[in-house]
């Protein structure tokens, strides 16, 4: 099967140039300034006036995840279809090891959830909630199997939270086995006390979710996580970083040359604590952890993205319906399921909030939504770039298409959108995964269950391209 993508402007993390591109079966076979009509293409896509960019890589999603007495409403089918509409062609989701379980049991449960359902390629991070000696050995085996990152929690006491000794043991292990620890950095003990105090004082509204999880709790935990990683001589990746207090810790560590990396998410760039105060119970729509912050933090995060103190923008996509699931916290903010939709809107929001106002270049946009996450999590250069030999995971992006974000017009299985009514210019119009068209003309046209599990490489943020991908002959 050959597909020719003609007349487009190819955008990678490093370059922008006019070229045609030939896909043979699942990979990119040729890139040239004018590929002749006759390579026997079965299909021609005209990308005139449009960008051809690598499909997005979203390294933080929660599909079909049991959490806070319910389960995220998007499963691997609905969530990955929505991802494809938004231009994302790979995800890394989180498999959970519950206390007393082997890591492998948790992983197998998540593989079953995804297999035959996901329409785009997927990998897993392993959430470890229990790290006795046998689980540390298992971490090595998982790394060998291509599950090369582990999420540890400094929050959610009694559920996911690990003590510092366990976290340190996990970091020592990844320093040896080439894995990467992804840290949820919030001081869970202090937050727990603040939540109990607020509820005892009769403060039950959604805004108290934000007030009981102050930026200091995130800054402190981020600094502690960095100190533990430094002692263990391990690299560290901070997930869903939300505020300047935490960013300053990351910056200081990076200035000292430590291998510390971080992601932020659109909710921290576009939403604020004011959303938690929307009338009635509407604030529940924006409850996630860490919480959305005072709006001035957004400017600091944008500067962090532009200056590479933040390398990745992921979504933390975790959907709970407003009319049913979020209502669990009507009389108690601490029972509102934490999480919000984002898998479909990440690229359009970043393009509109980042590229159009000139906060970041188009190439930096590609870097933070595709290339850097692919590098960080061991799937580059197969994913996250446009190069001969890479998987043909592409989106044709129309920079002039105007629209409005609305839950009704989107594909995520949830009854609200936190960005409802936002006007956007530019969005993906054709999306391919491994050479197969998934989305065109506003319709999903791909095969069900097209997605495959990704076996990821060990952590190496700057992998050398293969000889073929580097264009080296012989
Ligand atoms: O609010 C959030 N982020 N919920 C999902 C779990 C997590 O910490 O990523
Ligand atoms: Zn988290
Ligand atoms: Zn998450």
Structure overview:
With 474 residues, this protein is of the alpha/beta class. The protein has a domain at 59-376: Metal-dependent hydrolases (TIM Barrel, Alpha-Beta Barrel). It is built from 13 helices and 19 strands. It has helices at residues 76-85, 103-114, 133-145, 164-177, 188-200, 207-211, 215-232, 244-255, 266-270, 273-276, 296-306, 346-355, 362-376; strands at residues 2-11, 16-24, 27-32, 43-46, 51-54, 56-61, 66-67, 70-71, 88-97, 121-128, 149-153, 180-184, 236-238, 260-264, 312-313, 394-404, 423-433, 436-440, 443-444. The strands form three sheets. Strands 1, 2, 3, 4, 5, 16, 17, 18 and 19 form a nine-stranded mixed β-sheet that branches. An eight-stranded parallel β-sheet has the order 6-9-10-11-12-13-14-15. Strands 7-8 form a two-stranded antiparallel ribbon. Helix 3 packs parallel to helix 4. The radius of gyration is 21 Å and the shape is globular. Residues 467-474 have low confidence and may be disordered. The structure holds N-(aminocarbonyl)-beta-alanine (URP) and zinc ion (2 copies). One zinc ion binds next to loops. One zinc ion (ZN) is lined by residues 60, 62, 316, 318.
Architecture blueprint of SSEs:
Blueprint lengths: L1 E10 L4 E9 L2 E6 L10 E4 L4 E4 L1 E6 L4 E2 L2 E2 L4 H10 L2 E10 L5 H12 L6 E8 L4 H13 L3 E5 L10 H14 L2 E5 L3 H13 L6 H5 L3 H18 L3 E3 L5 H12 L4 E5 L1 H5 L2 H4 L19 H11 L5 E2 L32 H10 L6 H15 L17 E11 L18 E11 L2 E5 L2 E2 L30
Parallel strand pairs: 1-4, 1-5, 6-9, 9-10, 10-11, 11-12, 12-13, 13-14, 14-15
Antiparallel strand pairs: 1-2, 2-3, 5-16, 7-8, 16-17, 17-18, 18-19
The structure holds N-(aminocarbonyl)-beta-alanine and zinc ion (2 copies).
